[in-house]
Amino acid sequence: MTVLASSSLLAPAPTTRSARWAGRHPAVVATLLLLGLFLLYVYSEDFNDFQYDSDVYWQLAKLYWGPTGFDLLRYDNILRGYLFPLLLAPLVPVAEQYALLPMDLYRVFGAGMAAVLFGAVVPGLWHAARGPGSLALVPLGRRLLLGGLGFVFWRGYFNYPLSDFPALLALAGGVWVLLRSRSVGSGLLAGLLVAAAANIRPVYAAALPLVAVLFLWLRPVAGQQQPKRWAVVAREAALFAGLALVLWPQMAINRAHFGSGSPLVLTTLPNQPSLYLLQLQWGLRYKKYETSIGTDYAVPQMFFVDRRGQELWAGTGRGQLDSMAQYGRILRASPGGVLRTWASHLFNGLDLQYPTPYIARVYQRTWVLAWLNYTVLFGGLWVLCQRRSRWPLAASLRVGLVLLVVLGPCAATLPVAMECRFLLPLHLLLCAAFAFGVSPAAWYARSPRQRLGAGVLYVGFVLACFSLSLNTQSRLQLGGRSPFSNQLGTKNTP
């Protein structure tokens, strides 16, 4: 009886200790739970082949392997950086030797990336950006809520090797490391990660000078000892060493194949117009772009036509855009028209209608996903506005710099043919604000008049979003669609 009583008394202890450990390490627990969720999902999908851009990255990974084995300088693509294909390269011989599907190998990578991003990096960056004296770590439940939102809105992206999530993971991770530690090692790791982001997704190169500003602006925590001068210099050297380690191979590839000493991805074919200029031209003519792999739309390219933008482009009398100066002249001639297209791109980039980059059914009912998205966007904006009014000046400057680093690349994509993945950092910011900041208790603590006012604002916001979305979806080039209906049997011809 004594033994049984002792056992019964001691039995709850492991559970209590486990709960305490989970409370102290929410990032680890959230990452593991989300890894299980995303693994279950990606391996339940019945797609077996990479599509379009994702297949391009897999083919680029094969470039590293030749008759004599691995060779870095075999990589010769001018439009895409070397690093992401290099990360995929070890999977190539495994797939070939064991006759495995490349997608099945990549799915582990994709699920792991999602788990780390939603479970650890985004919550860690959110906490670190608030600066010294901020509240406790983001708790487990709210991390899982963010992971759930990421699953609902973006789950299909983790089946395919696309550059958007790896680049954002690297950039957010680099900024997080930069904020949370003043060690020499953190400087090296931050340099590696930020340079990786710039190479994986060249538009993120715009963040490099902003990272330098953030690095130099950061001050020691109040009450802590001022770091010695040699430690500051060593950390600065480590940051630039990390940048150089990642960017040097790109410079070697550029010099070997293209005669350029630039450490950045060149992104322009010899004797050809800049790809960015072509994207700017499309940005005037189209509201949005998606990709179809289904049978209910005749071509893969889903262009949503901007009639006013097409009139603006036709008014230039040009066949193509040859320089940024020409685009500047269009902007000066019709600033209102160009700014309207940018505003349209901003909304359409946040208007997720499908949780995948490759759409198997174009004409399907998507209003539930859209409504949930608008709700999260409203809640995220509400939280950010409420938080901003309570931040002291120093915290506001710190957060502002972090936002410039992470969201700055989004600004470069606003003028181009918009895809939802281009505004991924902004969408995840609003998801994080919703997941980490929405409080039912604070809502019920407000007066009835305040709740009524917020409810009216919410309804107006959602109705406005549906109105804008319906306008865009009706402009689908080969036949408009409605998010409220399954248009079965629709099959358009070009």
How would you sum up this structure in a few lines?
The chain is 64% helix and 4% strand.
Walk me through the structure.
It is a single chain. The chain has 494 residues and is mainly alpha-helical. It has 2 domains: 21-258, no CATH class; 275-473, no CATH class. It contains 21 helices and 5 strands. It has helices at residues 2-10, 12-24, 26-42, 52-62, 83-88, 91-97, 102-129, 140-154, 164-180, 184-200, 208-217, 229-258, 275-285, 307-314, 324-333, 335-350, 367-388, 393-413, 424-437, 440-445, 448-473; strands spanning 65-66, 69-70, 286-292, 301-305, 358-359. The protein has a 3-stranded mixed β-sheet. Strands 1-2 form a two-stranded antiparallel sheet. Helix 13 packs across helix 14 (307-314). The N and C termini lie far apart (82 Å). Residues 1-13 have low confidence and may be disordered.
Q: What is the helix content?
A: 55-70%
State the helix count: 21
The side-by-side strand order for the widest beta sheet comes to: 4-3-5
User: Low-confidence parts lasting 5 or more residues at pLDDT below 50?
Assistant: 1-13
Principal-axis shape equals globular
**What's the gyration radius in Å?**
24 Å
How far apart lie the N and C ends?
82 Å
SSE map:
Layout: H1 2-10, H2 12-24, H3 26-42, H4 52-62, E1 65-66, E2 69-70, H5 83-88, H6 91-97, H7 102-129, H8 140-154, H9 164-180, H10 184-200, H11 208-217, H12 229-258, H13 275-285, E3 286-292, E4 301-305, H14 307-314, H15 324-333, H16 335-350, E5 358-359, H17 367-388, H18 393-413, H19 424-437, H20 440-445, H21 448-473
Parallel strand pairs: 3-5
Antiparallel strand pairs: 1-2, 3-4
Helix pairs in contact: 3-7, 3-8, 7-8, 7-9, 8-19, 9-10, 10-12, 11-18, 13-14, 15-16, 17-19, 17-21
